[in-house]
């Protein structure tokens, strides 16, 4: 996978600078707190120089007390500015994290239907969560580690250079070497962190997929197979994690050795300066304090940088999503779709999945205004694909689809969807109440309108059997309801929406004969004065359609009314009818 670290940081930066005053106050408080930290040792240097003189008179005591007052003052300033930085950082981070969440949510939902078909739900959710978590971790590291460390190092090295140029340059040279070695090793480790993050996403996706399909796992005796698959992915994660942690061990060892060399080398040089009368006891205290302070910061800095790279690796996958252009977009200055008569025309339409599997080739069809069209054909013939293309779930390979003369590729997608209602073969409901699921078809609908739609769809009866009635939660994907109940809720939603174009894709396939009979009159009311396209395997569903087209191999092979098609000798529709009718008779 391409390393998108710069793009990740750019996205984080763009969101952080939306709050300039919070950002600026946090940075200034951070720097002032760090400066207070490095000023304090200068007063300790004076304090120990006074002590080393050995005088115990009032003048020496007063001098020590004066120095102590300044030490106390800067300790208070250090505490005060750290509190300010932390206090301001809280609203800053929470605001940025909330906006990042919105950005991820908004951008992800603009991806095409195909994009979601090609990605696991669990993996996508994990990417969003890790992206937000990575910002929180990275921001904390910058505010409480990187910036203070940089401030302390610059000031401490500057003081040492002023005290003794050679001493300061030794410290500066060591720091440069230390950072170069760390950067090289950490950068080498980054590719393993990204690979580990990808492997963890894969394991999350498999876990989510098996949980979703836990019924199939049990009924098809797939437990051992799924355990083996999951174990193989976890083993891959383990190996990548082991490699990354071994590199961590090497980095820690290298850091420790460089620190050992610096401390011995600095004090050897300081002894020579003391021997020549150029170094005092207080200078030794200052040097040791700065060395310990720098070591503490540098040691943590190494860990911070490694964890920072790990955070960026965790954010990588979501960054890829944010950088992936939306597959289907409105053209510039796209207009709203205006439905007048409601004529739909397929004009030389060709469509292939992934540019390899051709489903429809030079397909032509005109659905007249207010015509009720039935579509039948064997599985894989292109029926459902035709519906998806009308709703612009995919872009055409060639040709165009027109609604009242308007090319759907040139109108706003939202306006297209606003004029269509679809009841799919297997409706998926939100894990919300029945009231909310039905009202989703018309968000501003009153309770009475929801009740009326439910009655027409014949789901009002079973809803009232629940203790909580319309306030009953339906479970994830609506799994607390039967297939027929979910389908009736979806039909109620379509009735409430009352869009001019109605599409039924096997809308009665999950209903028993009694339920289908109950709902047929609701569908008759729903289809009145609308453009209707019905896909069905159960031919009893489309007997009353104005026209029926039979599709096979992505082409229309027959068309006409139910009676007309039955009169065709050796016709495809007649064969399908005889198979179904004959099966019932037997």
Describe this entry's structure for a reader.
The protein has 586 residues and is α/β, with parallel strands linked by helices. The relative contact order is 0.08. The longest helix is centred in the middle third of the chain and has 53 residues, at 223-275. The two termini are 59 Å apart. Helix 3 (58-109) runs antiparallel to helix 5 and helix 6 runs parallel beside helix 9. It has a 6-stranded mixed beta sheet with strand order 6-7-8-3-9-10, sandwiched between helices. A 4-stranded antiparallel beta sheet has the order 2-1-4-5, with helices on one face. It has helices at residues 5-16, 20-53, 58-109, 113-117, 121-163, 165-212, 214-219, 223-275, 281-323, 383-390, 413-418, 434-439, 447-456, 460-463, 483-497, 513-527, 562-566, 572-585; strands at residues 344-353, 357-367, 372-376, 398-403, 406-407, 420-423, 501-505, 531-535, 547-552, 555-560.
Residue windows where pLDDT falls under 50 for at least 5 positions:
582-586
Global mean pLDDT: 82
Shape descriptor reads elongated
Which structural class best describes the helix and strand composition?
alpha/beta
**Percentage of residues assigned to helices:** 55-70%
Helix-strand sequence: HHHHHHHHHEEEHEEHEHHHHEHEEEHH
In terms of DSSP E residues, the strand content is 5-15%
Compute the number of strand runs.
Answer: 10
Summarize the main sheet: 6 strands, mixed
End-to-end Cα distance, whole Å, is 59 Å
Radius of gyration: 35 Å
């Amino acid at each position: 996978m391409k390393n998108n670290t710069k793009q990740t940081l750019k996205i984080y930066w763009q969101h952080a600078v939306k709050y300039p005053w919070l950002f600026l106050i946090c940075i200034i408080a951070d720097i002032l707190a760090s400066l207070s930290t490095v000023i304090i040792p200068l007063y300790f240097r004076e304090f120990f120089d006074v002590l080393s003189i050995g005088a115990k008179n009032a003048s020496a005591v007063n001098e020590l007390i004066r120095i102590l007052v300044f030490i106390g003052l800067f300790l208070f300033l250090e505490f005060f500015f750290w509190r300010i930085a932390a206090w301001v950082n809280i609203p800053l981070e929470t605001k940025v994290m909330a906006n990042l969440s919105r950005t991820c949510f908004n951008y992800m939902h603009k991806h095409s239907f195909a994009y979601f078909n090609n990605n696991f739900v669990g993996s996508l959710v994990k990417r969003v969560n890790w992206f937000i978590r990575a910002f929180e971790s990275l921001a904390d590291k910058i505010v409480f580690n990187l910036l203070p460390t940089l401030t302390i190092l610059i000031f401490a090295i500057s003081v040492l250079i002023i005290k003794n140029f050679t001493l300061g340059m030794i410290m500066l040279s060591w720091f440069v070497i230390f950072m170069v070695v760390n950067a090289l090793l950490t950068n080498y480790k980054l590719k393993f962190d990204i690979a580990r993050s990808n492997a963890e996403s894969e394991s999350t996706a498999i876990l989510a997929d098996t949980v979703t399909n836990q019924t199939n796992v049990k009924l098809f005796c797939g437990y051992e197979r799924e355990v083996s698959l999951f174990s193989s992915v976890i083993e891959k994660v383990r190996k990548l994690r082991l490699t990354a942690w071994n590199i961590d061990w090497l980095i820690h060892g290298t850091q420790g050795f460089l620190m050992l060399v610096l401390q011995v080398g600095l004090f050897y040089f300081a002894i020579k300066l003391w021997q020549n009368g150029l170094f005092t006891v207080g200078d030794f205290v200052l040097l040791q304090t700065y060395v310990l302070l720098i070591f503490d910061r540098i040691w943590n800095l190494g860990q911070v940088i490694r964890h920072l790279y790990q955070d960026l690796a965790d954010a990588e996958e979501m960054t890829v999503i944010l950088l992936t252009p939306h597959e289907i977009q409105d053209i510039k200055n796209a207009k709203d779709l205006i439905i007048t008569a409601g004529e739909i025309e397929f004009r030389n339409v060709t469509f292939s999945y992934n540019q390899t599997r051709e489903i429809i080739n030079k397909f032509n069809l005109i659905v007249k205004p207010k015509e009720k069209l039935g579509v039948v054909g064997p599985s894989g013939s292109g029926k459902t694909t035709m519906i998806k293309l009308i709703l612009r779930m995919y872009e055409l390979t060639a040709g165009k689809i027109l609604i009242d003369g308007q090319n759907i590729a040139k109108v706003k997608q939202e306006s297209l969807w606003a004029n269509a209602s679809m009841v799919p073969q297997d409706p998926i409901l939100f894990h919300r109440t029945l009231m909310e699921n039905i009202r989703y078809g018309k968000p501003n609908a009153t309770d009475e309108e929801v009740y009326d739609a439910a009655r027409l769809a014949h789901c009002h009866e079973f809803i009232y059997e629940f203790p909580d009635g319309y306030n009953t939660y339906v479970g994830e994907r609506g799994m607390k309801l039967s297939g027929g109940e979910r389908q009736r809720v979806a039909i109620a939603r379509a009735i409430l929406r009352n869009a001019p174009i109605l599409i039924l894709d096997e809308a009665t396939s999950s209903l028993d004969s009694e339920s289908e009979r109950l709902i047929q009159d609701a569908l008759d009311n729903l289809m009145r004065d609308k453009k209707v396209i019905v896909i069905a395997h159960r031919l009893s569903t489309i007997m009353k359609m104005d026209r029926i087209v039979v599709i096979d191999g992505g082409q229309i092979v027959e068309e006409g009314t139910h009676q007309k098609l039955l009169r065709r000798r050796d016709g495809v529709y007649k064969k399908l009818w005889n198979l179904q009718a004959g099966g019932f008779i037997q």
